[in-house]
Design brief:
Structural class: alpha/beta
Mean pLDDT: 96
CATH topology: Arginase, Chain A
Helix content: 25-40%
CATH architecture: 3-Layer(aba) Sandwich
CATH superfamily: Ureohydrolase domain
Number of helices: 10
Strand content: 15-25%
Number of strands: 10
Low-confidence stretches: none
Largest sheet: 10 strands, mixed
Shape: globular
Radius of gyration: 18 Å
Distance between the termini: 34 Å
């Protein structure tokens, strides 16, 4: 179910004496409209049905509101045009949790935003968001391109999320995307950065190998050696024309992002995650992005929500500077 933006969420400090240079996000945020174009459009995916199915800690459905709250007081920098396109949430009926319908609605919604020339950034929500996000880009490109598009997926995540299961969950989206690409006759280009050797079974590493996934372990992504990581990322970006960028907050250390569905024992330093995010956003190939797994129920002093908002604002400002 799609609900329009609740603009009363966008409130915060007003530094009137500072003029235009003192504006904050809540002062320039507009409700999305069909005639909107050339800006960043935020959509909430208020869903953790996939986390439930994956036996994770529920609560990520509250993530979009928590991120908006932290975004409200962000200073206006390079991104000058912002739209709130509302929320999409599953509608449960009987024994059905509504996940697949919500993913389909998200993909249709994102395809529409892309057709308007907007940059969609989706606020999660569990990482089941990924299947809806990718399918939204796929629908858009299928309608506007005669040949198979070269889409690259860049996922910052402690997990491959390639699990084989009888039904979709927050642990299956990239395996589902691989199957979707095979059905379409498209290449599956997936780069997963921050993978934990101790949070993925051997079956998942074997599946990643068989699908041609490019990955780097969390222990390879450190501050001292981030040049190598950026070089590896560059090689991947050069091989594709369109990028779907997704960040699962559990890629970060638990002390930085405690409010997630599955906290990381090690994680990747925030400064490395930011450098990777900057690189993707500045590539000129990023078509949409999302942030997943914020769970406000387990957050400490809004720490994870603040990090999520900082990353969203960073991506939006990099795109706005292009």
């Amino acid at each position: 179910m799609h609900t329009p933006a609740d603009m009363t969420q966008w409130k915060g400090r007003v530094d009137a004496a500072e003029g235009q240079a003192g504006r904050r996000w809540h002062q320039i945020m507009q409700p999305w409209a069909p005639e909107a174009s050339q800006g960043v459009a935020l959509t909430g995916f208020a869903c953790d049905a996939g986390v439930h199915r994956n036996h994770g800690r529920p609560g990520a459905r509250k993530g979009p509101g928590a991120i908006r709250s932290m975004l409200s007081n962000m200073p206006v920098l390079d991104c000058q045009t912002l739209y709130d396109a509302g929320d999409i949430a599953p509608v449960a009926s009987g024994t059905h949790d509504g996940l697949e319908q919500a993913q389909d609605e998200l993909s249709s919604h994102l395809a529409g935003l892309l057709a308007q020339g907007l940059l969609p950034i989706t606020l999660g929500g569990g990482h089941e968001i990924a299947f809806g996000s990718f399918e939204g880009l796929a629908r858009h490109l299928a309608a506007s391109s005669g040949s198979p598009p070269r889409i690259g997926i860049v996922n910052l995540d402690a997990h491959f999320d390639l699990r084989q299961d009888d039904r979709a969950s927050s642990g299956t989206p990239f395996r589902q995307i691989a199957e979707n690409c095979r059905q379409r006759g498209w290449p599956f280009n997936y780069c997963c950065l921050g993978v934990s050797r101790y949070a993925n079974t051997q079956a998942l590493f074997d599946r990643a190998e068989s699908l041609g996934v490019s990955w780097m372990l969390d222990e390879e992504l450190n501050t001292a050696d981030r040049t190598n990581a950026l070089s590896r990322l560059d090689a991947f970006l050069h091989s594709v024309d369109h990028v779907y960028f997704t960040i699962c907050l559990d890629v970060l250390p638990a002390c930085v992002a405690p409010g997630v569905s599955a906290p990381a024992a090690r994680g990747v330093p925030l400064e490395v995650v930011e450098a990777l995010a900057d690189h993707v956003a500045a590539s000129g190939k990023m078509r949409l992005a999302d942030i997943a797994e914020l769970n406000p129920d387990f957050d400490i002093d809004h720490r994870s929500a603040r990090v999520a908002a900082r990353l969203v604002a960073r991506i939006a400002n990099q795109a706005g500077a292009l």
